[in-house]
Structures are given as C-alpha cells and as structure tokens.
Amino acid sequence: xxxxxxxxxxxxxxxxxxxxxxxxxxxxxxxxxxxxxxxxxxxxxxxxxxxxxxxxxxxxxxxxxxxxxxxxxxxxxxxxxxxxxxxxxxxxxxxxxxxxxxxxxxxxxxxxxxxxxxxxxxxxxxxxxxxxxxxxxxxxxxxxxxxxxxxxxxxxxxxxxxxxxxxxxxxxxxxxxxxxxxxxxxxxxxxxxxxxxxxxxxxxxxxxxxxxxxxxxxxx
Length: 220
What we know:
The chain is of the alpha/beta class. It folds into two domains: 3-172, Ribonuclease H-like superfamily/Ribonuclease H (Nucleotidyltransferase, domain 5); 174-220, no CATH class. The protein contains nine helices and five strands, in the order βββααβαβαααααα. α5 crosses α6 (141-158). The protein starts with a strand and ends with a helix.
C-alpha cells in the first residue's frame, strides 16, 4: 500500500499551488521517500495568502510549474493508494489532475474532531502546540506534512488502532458529539444544533463539507 502524506500552499483559496511537499510513509508511519518544492502558481499570489505562508512572487519566479514538478518526479501521485493530510480534501482539489481514479483518504482534521470534540479548535498548528508534536515550519508545505504525520501517530494511539484503522475511521460518519466550527452555532455539538438551522444550512449552503452534510442529513 503506497501512502502519501502531502500538503500544498496556494496563491489563493481557489487557485495556484506555490509550495508542495509529499512524503511516502509505510504502514508504521516510517518515511520511505520525500520531495518538496516551491511552485510557480502561474497567477498572482494574494496578499492574504502571503500573510499565511510568507511565499512571495519573487521566491517562485524560477520555480517549476505544478505540471513540470509532477513530470520531473514521474507523476508520484499516479500509483498512490492513500492520500493523507489535514483538511486533505482542500489539497486534493488543487491536485485533481494528477490523482489516480481510485484512492482512499485519511483526513486528520476529520479524525481530530472525532478524537477531541471539546478541543478549542482543530487547526493543525493548534493541535501541534496542544500535544507538543514534532513539526517543521508552520504554514510551509513540508513543515505541515511533518506535523500531520506526527498527528496521525497520535490519532492511532488515541483510537488504539493502526493506519488501516484510521482509513476505516475516516470513512465513518462524523459523531454527533462533533462541534461545528462556523456560523451562529459555532462550538455547539451536532446533536444540539436546532433542526430548523440544520435544514436551512443543508438547503441554502453550497459549500458544506461532505462529511458534515452527511452527518447533519441523518438528523432530518
């Protein structure tokens, strides 16, 4: 089983990878190989994005495009079986053109919400400091990958399982004990949110996380 933990930093919320890191691990969370690179996003990097990852347009001026990077490394995603990351659907959306037809996911954000429903928040950097995880530079691709791998190890210990178990847990619906992270009921458990607001959210919002939509739909 080829397991890739990866992260991207982007030029905005909608387009342009400007930093990528990929680490292949084995089923015991040991590193098999790793690659990273700044990427020419082929678009302007927004000031808001720069404020997060501190990657400027000068830094990526001579970097490869994402297509050049993938080609240079023989399209490493092509034969992967599992993709892992913190809020990994975001990164998968930016790399969709290079993914295999079939794959499994481990989203440490989803699993962290299940493991620690009462945490103040479940951002990667919050969890890094809360649990004193080994990590690299925050909000740079390889630094976040290092933090994610160590978070995966902690999650496996917390759930008393292994990597295969994390894959299975990732496929399970969100617990009703999970706290919603946005909106007028931010901080409330899914089971406690008024049904009128649940119906409104599911009918009106187009960008509801699929796992959250599935869990809330079960209440109707």
